[in-house]
Amino acid sequence: MINPKSNIKGRGAQQNTHNRFFELSHEVRDDFLEFCEKEGELPDKNKAQFLNVFPKTIVNKVASPDVGMAYSMNMYQGCEHGCIYCYARNSHEFWGYSAGLDFERRILVKKNAPKLLEQHLKKKSWQAQTIVMSGNTDCYQPAEKQFEITRQCLEVFLKYKHPVGIITKNALILRDLDLLKSLAADNLISVNISITSLSEDTRRILEPRTATIKRRLKVVKELSAYGIPVNVMLAPIIPSINSHEILPMAKAVSEAGALSIGHTIVRLNGAIGEIFTDWIHKTLPDRAEKVLHQIENCHGGTLNESRYGVRMRGEGQIAKQINDMVNLAKMKYFKNKVMPKLNTKLHEPYKNGQMKLF
Fold first, then answer.
1. Which is deepest, 103, 161, 221, 289, by most CB within 10 Å?
2. Over the range 302-326, which residues count as b (16 or more CB within 10 Å of their CB) and which as e?
3. Domain limits for position 108
4. pLDDT of residue 46 exceeding 90
C-alpha cells in the first residue's frame, strides 16, 4: 500500500540528514512548525536552487574496478530527479549540503564544463578513451533544459571526434538527436538508459521527477532506430519492489531495440540508508521491514556494502536469485545482440580542431 499523503510532493527524500563532515546540525522544531501554521506560512517552500560553481577540471578518472567506465564527467552536482536509492547522494556532503532533500533542491551548475572539456581533449598527453557523461548525476536532469550544458559538451565531442557515453533516465536526450546521429555515424556514441520498473506507480515513488516509463521506452526505440547503440540499466533491483519485473523489463527493452542490459542490486551506503529507511516507512509502510531485511540479506546483514566485486551484485540466496534471473533474461532476449566498442582512432588528428594534412 502506497501512502502518498505523508510525502513531500515531488521529492524522493523526506528529510535532510546530518552532514557527516559538519560538527553542528539543525532541526525543525515543533514550535516553529506551530508558528508557521498560525501565520499561514510554509515552513519549507520546496523549491530548487541553481548554484554556479567553477571547477578547474571536468574529466575524472574512475578508480573503481567494477563500475564499467574509465573516465566520467558531471555537468551538475545534485539531481532534481530525486531517486530515493541514488548512490550519488553521499557526494553532496562534500559540497557542504545534505544527502537528503538538499541533493534534490541544491543543484550545482558547472557552466564552464564545455570549455574545460575542450581543454582536456586538446592535451597532447591525452589518448582517446570513452568519457561517460553522468557518472554521478544525470546530465539530462530538468536543469539541462534551462542551461544546455550537456548539449554544448556533445558539440565539443563531435568537433574533436571523441567517443562519449551517456547515462540518463530523461527523455530530454531526444532534443539532441541531431548531435547523437552525427556522433553515431563515426561510432562515437553509446547511450545507457535507466529503467527501473514498468509500473508508473512504482516509478513515481522511486524516481519522482523522472520521465515516464512510456517515454523512456520511446527513447530506446527512437535512438535504436537511428543506429545509436542503447544499453538499458535495470538498476537498481530492489527486492520486493521491482525484483519481480526483471523478465518483463528485459523483454520490453529488447523489443524496443536495446542491444544489452545491465543491473545492480540496491545498496544503501552512508546517509542513503537513513534516507531510504525513513522514506519506505512513510511510503510503503506495509512492506517496509520486509524490503529492508531482504536488502540486508543481499549484503551480509547490513544495508551498506562497499566491497569491490560484491557491492554491485550482492551475495546470499536472494541476490543469487536476482542475478540468475538477469542472466536468464540476457540469454532469452539478448542472445544475438552485442553493444559495439566505440571508435578511439579518429580523435588524434582533431586535437587542433582540424585534420592534419601530413
1. 103
2. ebebeeeebbbbbbeebbeebbebb
3. 39-58+65-263
4. no
- Classify residue 3: in a domain, yes or no: no
Pairing of strands 106-109, 76-77: antiparallel
In a domain, 333, yes or no: no
Burial pattern 84-113, b for ≥16 Cβ within 10 A else e, equals bbbbbbbbbbebebbbbbbbbbbbbbbebb
Q: Which residues of 129-143 are buried (b: 16+ CB within 10 A; e: fewer)?
A: ebbbbbbbbbbbbbb
pLDDT digits (tens, 9 = 90+) for 189-204: 999 999 999 999 999 9
CATH number of the domain that 213 lies in? 3.20.20
Supply 304's cell numbers: 551498506
Secondary structure class of 250 (helix, strand, coil): helix
Establish whether the linkage from the previous residue to 4 is cis, with ω within 30° of 0.
Answer: no
Does residue 303 fall inside a structural domain? no
pTM of the model: 0.88
Question: 73 phi and psi, to 5 degrees?
Answer: -150, 150
Total structural domains within the chain: 1
* Cross-strand bridge partners of residue 76: 109
Q: Which three cell numbers stand for residue 356?
A: 592534419
Confidence grade of residue 358 (pLDDT, cut at 50, 70, 90): very low
Q: To which residue does cell 567553477 refer?
A: 54
The DSSP secondary-structure symbol of 271 reads T
Residues 269, 271, 274, 280, CA torsion sign: negative
Q: 70-93 pLDDT, tens per residue?
A: 999 999 999 999 999 999 999 989
Give the side-chain half-sphere CA count within 13 A for 30: 0
d(CA 350, CA 21): 43
- Res 5: pLDDT: 44
**Other residues' Cβ atoms within 10 Å of the Cβ of residue 167:** 23
